[in-house]
Amino acid sequence: MRNFGFEERQEPSGLPQALPTAPRPAAAPRRDVAVLGPTLRFKGELSAEEDFILQGRIEGSIHHTQSVTIGTEGVVQGDIHARIVVIDGSVEGDLHGLESVVVNATGRVTGNIFAPRVGLVDGALFNGRIDMGARQADAQAPAKASQPGVALSAEETERMLGSKQ
Length: 165
Prior knowledge:
- It is a single chain.
- By secondary structure, the chain is mainly beta.
- The protein has a domain at 33-132.
- 11% of the residues lie in helices and 37% in strands.
- It starts with 32 loop residues before the first strand and ends with a helix.
């Protein structure tokens, strides 16, 4: 059970209370979580520093430094940028996770996923492509000129085709 800052009430009794013999364990670090309910309708760009759970509808982009969870009733039409992205609802847009993106069984995503770790749970609906780090590799590696007679990898072919469009 979660303690919301209320101390346990101690009822007076005629008996002396025993002193605690061991110190209480340190409290877990406090995590702020913002929850937007199912009746919420929002248009525009949303950003924040705390964890975020959406059960409503957002038309626009979400930029968070922590985790973003789109609940089973949540709908997003726009891109999501966060440290961790978890989808249980519906998203039409790209998902950018600094650490990970997970689409659970009830999740529906139409868009691309960019994250070093990606999880698609059995039953999830996903239509798009997944990039698990090619962007970071592109920035670190020098551009390789294609040589006649040398086969290109699938990523190199897609990169070449994507840059010409």
